Amino acid sequence: MYALALHGGAGTIARATLTPALEADYRAALRASLLIGTDLLAQGAPALDAVEATVRALEDCPLFNAGRGAVFTHDGHHEMDAALMDGASGRAGAVAGVREVQNPIRAARLVMEQTEHVLLAYPGADQLAREHGLPMQPVDYFFTQQRYDQLQEAIAAGRMQLDHAASPADPNWKKGTVGAVARDVRGHLAAATSTGGMTNKRYSRIGDTPIIGAGTWADARCAISCTGHGEYFIRAVVGYDVACLMEYKGLTLAEACRVVVHDKLAPVGGEGGLIAVDAAGNLALPFNSEGMYRASRNAAGEELVEIYGG
Description:
This protein is an alpha+beta fold. Helices cover about 35% and strands about 25% of the residues. The chain is built from nine helices and twelve strands. The protein has helices spanning about 20-40, 45-60, 105-115, 125-130, 140, 145-155, 230-235, 240-250, 255-265, and strands spanning about 5-10, 80-85, 90-100, 120, 180-185, 190-195, 215-220, 220-230, 270-280, 285, 290-300, 305-310. Strands 4-3-2-6-5-1-11-12 form an eight-stranded mixed β-sheet. It has a four-stranded antiparallel β-sheet with strand order 7-8-9-10, with helices on one face. Strand 9 (about 270-280) and strand 10 (about 285) form a beta hairpin. The longest helix has 23 residues, at about 20-40. The radius of gyration is 17 Å and the shape is globular. The two termini are about 30 Å apart.
């Protein structure tokens, strides 16, 4: 019994702000990425391979704030973060601030499998990727006009714009962090997350995505990938907290996710959500924001592709 869920960011996503054509584009991108991962699982591939492939597809899609669609920093470049974790072995790898790696999630796996470390930052992470032959791209590859326009707006307003916040000029511009979680046919779990971070960010800010236990977590009990206001997710150690509630309080996956997302994060302003899967293949996709780009599928053929809340 395999299962996979993915997200493409959570935030202010109102029905009135997406044109029918744009909504169709997002739904198609979510489903295409979903099928890449679930097709691998159906063939017996490990959960780790499935979540990496799913996130790579989302990184390659300019609609989302990861990889090719990453937002701009204050200095006009891209600083991308990614992480993945194998629940069966407890091994994890992550990168922060990479600038040239086409698929940051591949660099994160490289850290896990080819080094003794867990987290590498720019420029070393880019150097490692280059030395191991990962595809590298020039700055122009990551450029999208929408993201550049967002940067100019944020600079003019004198603010650092969270990737999940709506823009007065363009309420559609939130297309945040991407991630995937999976259970394979052997019952093993894995999680992967990737992001371009915040528009107009400075001082090499790093959010929760590459922080194991905060934005990304997997063990024998559950796998978690988060999206939202990273600082809150770091302070709440969200991914690990879900696992702890299951282990120490005996909560189900759905109960643990509800407590963390709605009872702990929401009251203190931690807007966002997460996707999760447990050892039995149960899925949870809670969020406390207006919407979350999300999709899921299991071996029974039960499929979800959704954007809005309610």
